[in-house]
Design goal:
With 461 residues, the protein is an alpha/beta fold. 38% of the residues lie in helices and 16% in strands. The chain contains 17 helices and 11 strands. The structure holds guanosine-5'-diphosphate and magnesium ion (MG). The site of guanosine-5'-diphosphate has 23 residues, from helix 2.
C-alpha cells in the first residue's frame, strides 16, 4: 500500500505538466471545430501572439512555440490536418461530423515566471494538453450507468408518447401495445421491437427537429460497432407487474445491463473519469432557432450529461488518481451568428440554461465561468437599415449561398424566452461558412483566448 502510494505520488508529480481537457457538448455544438481551432491557434501564437491577447502567456510574450503529438495508448489521432484543411480550404468549409473517438496532445513551450525555476536555470517549461474528440451523442449514454432499466423505460416511454416525438415513434408504440411485458420472451418479437425503436430514434436524430436526447446513443452513432450489433438491440418496455425471469421485460433488462456494462462503462472509464479542466460547449443559438421543443430538450440533455461527471472528489486518493477537476467553463458557441452587442445577453442566457449544473459543480468546490465563444469567426459586425431603423447586423457567407449577406438575426433575450418569443419566429440565425483566410496568422475567433486562459492559463505560470 505504502509502495503503491509512493509510486502513484511519483507518477502524479511527474504528470504535473499535463492538463487533461474534456471538451464536452451535445452533437453539432462545435466540439470538433473548437478542438481544431484550439490546436491551430496555439501553433500560430508563438509567432503571432496578438492572435490570443487574452491568453496571458501569449500576451506577456512568453509563449515560445507549440507542437502536436499523437495521443497515448491506442486511440486514433485526431485528424487535425484534415480539419484545419477544410476550414482554411478554398472554398472554405467545415470539418466532417465526428463518427469515432480521436485524441491528440498539444505541447506548449513557454518561458516560466517561476523565480525558483529561473534561478535553477530552467527558464522554459512545457505544458501538454491532452484532448479527446468523440461524437457528442455518446455523452447521453452516461446517465444510463446510474439508472435502472425500469426507470429508464418509464422516462423514455413518457418522452416518446409526447410531441414532437410521438409521431415518429407511433409504429413502435403500436407494436408495443401488442406485447405483454410479463409473458415469456420471444426473441424475434423483442428484436422487432428494438428494430422499430432504433429506426424511430434515427429518424428523430437525422430530421430537423433539433432534438438531442436520443438513448441508447450508439443506435444513432455506433462508432466502431456495426449498426446491427446485437448489443445495440435495446429499447424501453412498459413495466411488468410480475417480470419473471425469461419474460420480455426481464430479457430486455438483461440487454440493457449488457449495453451499460460493455458499451457505456468503458467509454466513461477510459475517457471521462479523469480530467483537470472541462469546457462544456452549448449551441444556445441553434436551440433558439429550432424553437421551444428543441430548447427544452437541450436543457434536459445537458442536465442529464453533467449529472454524470464526477466533480471535485477530494482527498488523497482522489488526488493521486487525478480525479479532481479544477475548473469548468461553459461556452455558448457560434457567437459570430449574432453581432457583438448581443454577446452579453448570450452569456447571461447560457448562465440561466446551466444554472442548476453550475450550482452543483461550484458546491463541490470547482470553479465555473460562462462565456460567449466563436472558435472560428465567420462574420463581421456591420450597421444596416431595417424598416428605417439602424441596427447592428452580421455579414458573412451563409451556407448554400454564393455571395456575402448582411442580416439582422434578432435580439438575444437575457432570460428564457417567453411564449410570445417562440410564436414570433424571431430568431433567424443562419449557418455561415468560414471566411476565406489569407496568410498564416491564425483564424479569427471570438473568445477562444479567454477560454484557453481560464482552462490552461493557471498551468502556464
Ligand atoms: N459560425 C460558426 N459556426 C460554427 C462554429 N463552430 C461550429 N460551427 C458550426 O457547427 C457545426 C458543427 O460543428 P462541429 O465542431 O462539427 O460540432 P460537434 O458535433 O460538436 O463536433 C459546424 O459544421 C459549423 O457549421 C463557429 O465558431 N462559428
Ligand atoms: Mg464532432
Amino acid at each position: 500500500m505504502v509502495l503503491d502510494t509512493a509510486r502513484a505520488l511519483a507518477r502524479r508529480v511527474g504528470e504535473r505538466n499535463v492538463v487533461r481537457l474534456a471538451v464536452t457538448g451535445l452533437r453539432r455544438c462545435g466540439k470538433t471545430v473548437f478542438t481544431t481551432a484550439f490546436i491551430d491557434d496555439l501553433l500560430c501564437a508563438g509567432q503571432w501572439p496578438e492572435l490570443l491577447p487574452f491568453l496571458d502567456v501569449a500576451a506577456r510574450g512568453d509563449l515560445i512555440a507549440a507542437e502536436t503529438f499523437a495521443p497515448e495508448g491506442d486511440i486514433p489521432a485526431f485528424p487535425y490536418v484534415e480539419s484545419i484543411g477544410a476550414i482554411r480550404g478554398d472554398p472554405a468549409g467545415w470539418p466532417k461530423a465526428t463518427e469515432r473517438l480521436h485524441g491528440l496532445r498539444v505541447s506548449i513551450r513557454y518561458r516560466t515566471r517561476n523565480r525558483v525555476a529561473r534561478l535553477l536555470g530552467s527558464a522554459t517549461r512545457v505544458l501538454t494538453v491532452e484532448l479527446v474528440d468523440y461524437p457528442g451523442e455518446w455523452l447521453l449514454d452516461l446517465p444510463l450507468l446510474a439508472k435502472s432499466y425500469t426507470d429508464w423505460s418509464r422516462e423514455t416511454l413518457g418522452m416518446t408518447r409526447a410531441m414532437p416525438r410521438a409521431v415518429r415513434f407511433e409504429r413502435w408504440l403500436t407494436f408495443l401495445a401488442g406485447i405483454d411485458p410479463g409473458a415469456p420472451a420471444v426473441t424475434a418479437t423483442l428484436d422487432e421491437a428494438a428494430r422499430l425503436y432504433a429506426s424511430a430514434l434515427r429518424d428523430c436524430a437525422t430530421s430537423d427537429t433539433g432534438l438531442f436526447l436520443h438513448q441508447p446513443a450508439r443506435i444513432v452513432s455506433p462508432g466502431t460497432f456495426a449498426p446491427d450489433d446485437p448489443l445495440l438491440a435495446v429499447c424501453p418496455l412498459p413495466p411488468a407487474p410480475s417480470a419473471a425471469p425469461g419474460s420480455f421485460h426481464a430479457v430486455m433488462a438483461e440487454r440493457y445491463a449488457a449495453y451499460c456494462e460493455q458499451v457505456v462503462a468503458p467509454f466513461y472509464r477510459d475517457h471521462f473519469r479523469r480530467f483537470d479542466a472541462q469546457i462544456v460547449l452549448v449551441d444556445v443559438l441553434g436551440a433558439l432557432r429550432h424553437g421551444q421543443a428543441s430548447f427544452d430538450d437541450m436543457r434536459a440533455a445537458i442536465g442529464a450529461v453533467l449529472q454524470s461527471f464526477d466533480y471535485g472528489r477530494t482527498g488523497l486518493r482522489a488526488w493521486l488518481e487525478g480525479a479532481r477537476t479544477e475548473r469548468v467553463l461553459f461556452a455558448a458557441t457560434k457567437a459570430d451568428h449574432v453581432s457583438s452587442n448581443q454577446h452579453p445577453n448570450l452569456r447571461r442566457l447560457l448562465e440561466e440554461v446551466v444554472v442548476r449544473e453550475g450550482n452543483r459543480i461550484r458546491f463541490r468546490g470547482v470553479a465555473t465561468k460562462a462565456i460567449a465563444l466563436s472558435s472560428v469567426r465567420c462574420t463581421e459586425d456591420v450597421l444596416g437599415e431595417v424598416q428605417g431603423q439602424t441596427l447592428s447586423m452580421v455579414r458573412g457567407l451563409p451556407v448554400g449561398r454564393t455571395t456575402q449577406t448582411a442580416l439582422f438575426p434578432g435580439e438575444i433575450p437575457a432570460h428564457f424566452p417567453g411564449p410570445q418569443d417562440w410564436r414570433d419566429g424571431r430568431f433567424r440565425f443562419l449557418d455561415f461558412l468560414p471566411a476565406p483566410v489569407t496568410g498564416n496568422r491564425g483564424l479569427p475567433h471570438i473568445g477562444i483566448d479567454e477560454a484557453m486562459d481560464y482552462l490552461i492559463g493557471p498551468r502556464l505560470g
